[in-house]
Amino acid sequence: MRRLGWFIAGATAGAGAMRMARRRVRSAARQLSPRHVRDRVEQRVRSKVDEVGDAIREGRAAKANRERQLRAVIDHRAESMTDHVGPGDTVLVDGEPVDAGRVILLRDRADSSNSV
Hints:
Blueprint: H1 2-31, H2 34-74, E1 78-80, E2 91-93, E3 96-98, E4 104-106
Antiparallel strand pairs: 1-4, 2-3
């Protein structure tokens, strides 16, 4: 009777291991199929293309912003906050203290003839 119990336990464990091994082999075969590999590569390429596009748009926006700042300096429409801040004064932007040299005041062209 004991041998029969051990035989049944071994046969059950073997059948379970075979079933699990079969599932793993099928899953691995599915992941390595040409269609699945192609889909993963395609997804990664699209993701990278989107990232490059986002970087280009961000760079263009930063370039345009910097050009506006430089043009304002050339047209004398920009002033540094350091000209208006005394020693010990604090400059706040959105309630947060910032370095006065990082803040640039821009005026409209119509207002450029008026002094601040």
